[in-house]
Amino acid sequence: MTNFLQYAVGGFATGSIYALVALGLALIYRSTRILNFAHGDITTAGAFVAFALLGIGLPFALAFGAALLSGALIAILFYFCVLVPAQRREATQLSQIILTLGLGLILQSLVAYFGGKEPQPFPFPLSDIEIYDVGGVVISQLSLGILGAALLASLLFYLLVQKTRLGLAMRATSENLPAAQTMGIPTRRILAFSWGMAALLGVIAGLFLAPLLLLDPFFMLEPFLKGFAAAILGGLNSLPGAIVGGLILGVAEALAGGYISIAFKNTLAFLIIIAVLLVRPEGLLGKEFVERV
Amino acid sequence: MDLVKSYRQELQLIRKPWTRVWVAFLLLMLLALPLVTPEYVAHTAALIFIYMIGVLGQNLLIGYTGQISFGQAGFLAIGAFTFGHLSRMGVPWPLGLLCAGIVSGIFGVLVGFPSLRLKGPYLAIVTLGFGIAVYQVFVNYEWLSGGRMGLIVPRLTPPFGLSETLFNYYFNFLFAILFTLLTYNIISSYMGRAFIAIRDNDIAAEAMGVSLTRYKLISFAVSSFYMGIMGGLYGLFLGYLEPNMFTFAESITIFVAVIIGGLAAVEGSIMGAAFVILVPQVFSSYKEMVPAIFGVTIILILIFEPMGLYGRWFKMRLYFRNWPYR
């Protein structure tokens, strides 16, 4: 039983990171119908900005703030400089997805060029080694921090989407673009804001993940794919679904790793993707009209 | 761009006598190329020929049938390792190559099943998951991948006393020509027309009597068969195989070649394969920047020239043919 709880707690910590990544993906998918293949690379770029700023001796708060802003800035610039011109030329949905892939490739090589390819340890105020013992279940300071940060971020995001005028505009834009435009909502700015928000959530996940893993240009690839799996599990156009999917995936992975085999742990996410898409393509909490051909 | 007057003309590979001359000239040039150039040129060209086969196959799937796939590396790995294990067991290479293609094709059908229910972005994720799952299987099971040292594939001994580079060049050249002709034949047969019909409007295609189930699966099978053959040739060319050759980056490279070359264009696939091989060679001192070049090219092409390099070439030809009229 203690073992089970131990795995579950560990799973919740990684799951909350997946949830943050999935939240960003779902936010972009539901407002623009684009799968953002550059999400992981934007996150990596943000983490590297923080790493570089910490390297020149800036305090943590400042470096992290700059990382979040730079991630959001990349996403917003991409939206205005690439996606909007592409949409003006009537690019299909698929080619817009491929555009994000192009951005991902560019960021990847820029990070590799300026940040170096060798894995580096990421300095962090919370420690991975200091642990607390809660009734036989051990939890590290860092995992606690991750859980707290993810909870706080998703709570703030929920309040933003559900309780503010801006959130109302975001929901209206994702629900019906032409109607939102006729109601006087500046949809282009709202969509750019959504892209920035999504990147910001991703960078938070990246900053908390970097001290767990080592920092290298590809450290976000796997968490990003897991985030994808989580978003699909919960339903790609559902924000609460992304959080639920992330947590379920994290716990399932930890349990599979603990009880079956570590090698099986990484393949699980992809088995989940394929199974969910075959059985229930709209995900656990998603609602989408599915066309049968 | 030409007016096709009869069905027989439509089926013809080359319609104009002058084009015949140009193509023959090009083929002769390619035949003579390794005799007059330094060795590394022939080596690079052989690699382009190998990639051409895979890119052609993916163009059948992505360009002609309109089914997006990010799992190319998975099929490539399956084909390559099938060939590697078979040739180590002493199976003659033509049979091994055929088996590599067929095994890969069977997996293609398996991955194709989700395509019957899923579209666009969802299919992209399933195939992406497949590609990475295959990679992880090969990494985790050493008896499949040959362990830490990789799988040594016995090479062929060049006949007629040819040098190894020359033999590799002509060997892969032969396969590239063969598969280019095969692709031309596929797209002008009922099968190819069915692919195009599915891409353009699947409901209309079904209503006109094209079996969606059948032709989507065939499309996956054929494209994976091409990937499997490419994997076998790749193993034969390099002489060893390891799982790290078949990461997600490899899928992206082939996908990029299809997009940059031009969707639904055989000539485009050839150009795309040449692009993804030549760019890393030319920029070999800035290795980190190669993905950035790919990324920038993709963005420019998708915004300004959705037909890819082939589209640009096509427009140039049209301009000169109609000159001075526009």
Task: Name the features.
heterodimer, A: 293 residues, mainly alpha, ABC transporter involved in vitamin B12 uptake, BtuC, two-stranded antiparallel ribbon, 11 helices, 2 strands, 74% helix, globular, B: 326 residues
Count of structural domains of chain A: 1
* Class based on secondary structure composition and strand pairing of chain A: mainly alpha
SSE-based structural type of chain B: mainly alpha
Oligomer: heterodimer
Order of helices and strands of chain A: HHHHEEHHHHHHH
**Head-to-tail CA distance between termini of chain A:** 48 Å
Question: What topology emerges from the helices and strands here?
Answer:
The complex is a heterodimer of chains A (293) and B (326).
Chain A: H1 2-32, H2 39-55, H3 60-88, H4 93-115, E1 131-134, E2 137-140, H5 141-163, H6 165-175, H7 177-182, H8 187-209, H9 221-234, H10 239-259, H11 262-279
Antiparallel strand pairs in A: 1-2
Helix pairs in contact in A: 1-5, 1-8, 1-9, 1-10, 2-3, 2-4, 2-8, 3-8, 5-6, 5-8, 6-8, 9-10, 9-11, 10-11
Chain B: H1 7-11, H2 17-36, H3 39-64, H4 72-88, H5 93-115, H6 120-140, H7 142-145, E1 151-152, H8 164-187, H9 190-200, H10 202-207, H11 212-238, E2 240-241, H12 248-261, H13 266-282, H14 290-304, H15 308-322
Antiparallel strand pairs in B: 1-2
